[in-house]
Structure formats: C-alpha cells, structure tokens
Amino acid sequence: MHFTLVGAGAVGTLWGLTLQEAGHHVHFWTRAEQTSLTRGLESQAEQHFPANNPALLADSDCILVCVKAFQVDTALNSLLPHLHQDTPVILMHNGMGTAQSALEKLGGIPLLLATTSQASLLLSETTVRHTGIGETRLGGINPSGKRCDFLAEVLNHALPPCAWENKIEKALWQKLAINCMINPLTGIFQIQNGELTKPEYRDQLHQLASEIALVMHAEGIDTDSDTVLQRTLSVANATATNYSSMNRDVFFKRASEIDAITGYLIRCASRHSIATPENQALYLAIKNLEQSYDHP
C-alpha cells in the first residue's frame, strides 16, 4: 500500500519506519517545505522518504494523521485539495474532540479514529527511540470509514498489536481517562510516569478517577472509579521510565494537548452538570504554565 504520514514527530516517524519495514511505500506530509527527509530508529540505519509531494499524496491508499489535536484542522485543510474521495483518513492523536470538525471537512471520505499506547521519543531531528510497546485500536466513525476494518490488520502487521473496534468511542474514552491522570501530573511535577505509582500521589489519583468515571458513565461508557484508577496505575507502571508527551511539552515550553485531554473531559462534565474540581485544577495549572512561556 501507499501511505502518507502527516506529521514527522515521534509517533509519525515510528509508524512511517515500521510501515516501510513492512513493505509499504511511505511518503511524509509536513509543515516544512523539504521534498525528502531522513528518519531512523535508534541503533538502526537511517531511511530516506519522499516528502510534501502532492502527486504522491493524491496517489495514497491511506492517510495517517499523527499531529497534535490542535493541529488537525490545519493539517486536513492542507490535504483536502489532493484527497481522493475513497482514500481513508486515520486520525491518531491524544485527546478527543476533533472528530466532528473532521467529519464536516471530509464529507463522505472514509474517516477513522485511532488510539495507540505505542510509546516513542525523538532523540534528535532524525532519530526516534521506541520506548514502549502498547496496543493500537482503530475504528470508523462514518459509514465509509466503518468499511475499512482491513486497515487494522495492515497496521497490526507493521506495528503490533492493533485491533479493530466497532465502537471506537469506548476505546478513546478509556485512553482519555488515562491521559487525564498521567499527562497533567507528570507535566506539572516534571516526573516520569512511574513516579505516579508512589503513595504520595494516591489520594489525588483517587479523586481524579472518581470525577472521570462519573463523566464517562454520563457519556454512556460503563466503568467505575476503581477500574479507571487501576488501568492508569497499570500503564504508569508499564511505562515507568517514560516521559509523557505533556511532560515533554512543558519541558520544552511547547503548547500541549491539554484542551483535547482534560479540557475535553471538563466540557463534557459541564454538559452533564458534573463537578470536576480536581481535573479543573490540573487544567488551570497546565494553562498557567503555558502562558508563562512568553512571560518568564
């Protein structure tokens, strides 16, 4: 298959490299103007890829969008003039809230959402480290997208495990719950994920899990606070030495995905008149950090 990877950060690079290794043709679409780029996994030979070629974009069999949530609209706008009506588009990012706008932009073009726990870290502009193996879940959100279940096997062959979800919203909420607990705390305290398993964070995690479970239940997701907490602790333990994406965003003084993660949770809670003081406190703390970047 011919893939276009939108975004050449840690996640996009990891998927681009593994898809090419699996025998697919990979082309990158980025904000830069280069016509080629070089990327490689740590301790492996670098690979060369074509980039930003409208003809290759138009000939793609699948578009995998791996930019941050707040960059999705701009990315889709750049793709639209070149997209074929039958070419599946997969959005893979942390957080939620981009689907409705994407549906409006793409019309009948097959649209799929994906959530992944594959962990990667950019060591340099050209080198990525695969820091943790985790499941990827994929599902369509419009009629044409729901007919693209074959793509789960394609992605599974390149970077397993990957599974198809008939109701992707549940998987997205389960990942959002974990992100709401791990990302802001590791960003604020500048700690690795595993630090959150220590006793000093347990009370705060319990309160966060209780709020998140109430919102998920109101949104039709069957869960409880203990399940939310235990899943989060399991991920924190499995990725103990990893830094969350929000941790790195704060460290490098970049805009984070807090609006698509905790912000999305708070907006849903507001619709259901559910109080989320612990999550709101974390949201404001990250927003204050972001505002301080321009005002040291």
TrEMBL record:
InterPro entries cross-referenced by the UniProt entry: 6-PGluconate_DH-like_C_sf, 6PGD_dom2, ApbA, Ketopantoate_reductase, KPA_reductase, KPR_N, NAD(P)-bd_dom_sf
Domain Ketopantoate reductase N-terminal: 4-141
A GO cellular component annotation in the UniProt record: cytoplasm
Gene Ontology BP terms: pantothenate biosynthetic process
Domain of life from the UniProt record: Bacteria
Residues of the Ketopantoate reductase C-terminal domain: 168-289
Its job: Catalyzes the NADPH-dependent reduction of ketopantoate into pantoic acid.
Protein name: 2-dehydropantoate 2-reductase
Source organism (scientific name): Enterovibrio norvegicus
